[in-house]
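Protein Record: Sequence and Backbone Structure Tokens
======================================================

Structure line: whole-number tokens from a learned vocabulary of local backbone shapes, matched to residues.

Purpose: to set a sequence beside its fold so the mapping can be learned.

___
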Amino acid sequence: MHIVVLGGGISGITTATLLQARGHRTTLLTSSTPHQQHGADYLRFASLYPAASVIPHTVHVKNEARHTRWSQQLFDVFCGRPGWGVRIQRHAELFETPPPRPDYLDALRRLTLLPEDGRGRPGLPQRGKASGLYGWLFDMTFVEAPTYMRKLYALYNELGGCVQRQHLTRDRCSEWPGDLWVNCLGYAAPHLFEDKAPATYRHGHLLHVRPPASGTTWRKASPIASYNYEPASHVYPAPGSTPGGIYFYPRQSVWVVGGTKHPANEHGAYTAPLREPTVRVHGVVIPKAMWDLNAALISSMTGADIRSLPVRVVSGLRYVRDPDGKGVRLSWEDTGGRPVVHNYGHGGAGVTLSWSAALHVARTIEAKSKSPTLRCLSHPIAGTLCNASQKLLEEAPASE
């Protein structure tokens, strides 16, 4: 059986690579690859510089804990391998008011819960006027996205995968090859396949900060390397008056600082005004709290003030499928001709869910098509990936 994966973003290349490693014949059909399509300032859905953590806190998906476990264990195949840009670091999710307990919490590694009375813990970043600090610390898988994407495409080619460039439109779908299609088209998916689920779009800003040339005086007392931080709702309100979150994810050559999730249309135009007060950073208007609060928290961790360092502002869009419903679309559809397996709608969690969603696709295809006995490719990474994925599938309840 010839499987054609539609879409060359993080979901598409990950799915194609896993299927190829498990012995399937695949072709990746894409109009362009993310690391070649445009410059870093172009407004786009597939960011070259996402936060790229393995925490599903920005997306709705069934069984978050399973997705978190699967993602972590399959990313482990690449962690520590030279040149892949995959590592594990100590991370904190911090809140100024008691948060609800997320479903994925029990799947996190080396989890440490902060005291329920809001006293926090010495060394953690905290807004000066915050009345309390809640949340948890854990070991997070972190991906240097541009580096990782290039390596993943190279691996897919090594495994015999075929990448074909084609502009994908509904009127040309009869030209697509394959016995089965895997739809990883992201925001473009509803334009090519029927989908009644509602879609929303979120405009996001990232600050790319160049670390001090002389090196950073990282506070030895800091127990973490990165954070997600949700202040009180009056400090940084998101649309609808719910609290908005900010974050700090240091990379090897740049610090990624966020963030905004502002309502927009699919062309990037705001559908509501930015919350006041705002500040202009290199000509781009962003919420003042995002700028000032991140600066204070990062300074407490590193001793550096990002407002005095070289910085650029990058904008992008997130397509969020059915935000108040089922969210991510992971399903088999029998169209009467070629069957389609859908794998899209990951919002801002494309990297987060890339491997777990790909494994769900592989299990669905192999169950529905009654594929022959699994044949792992004789490649050092592919063999490890195949065996790790098979172990996870054998451990998973058949009903899930």
Remarks:
- The CA atoms of residues 190 and 196 lie 8 Å apart.
- The chain is about 20% helix and 25% strand.
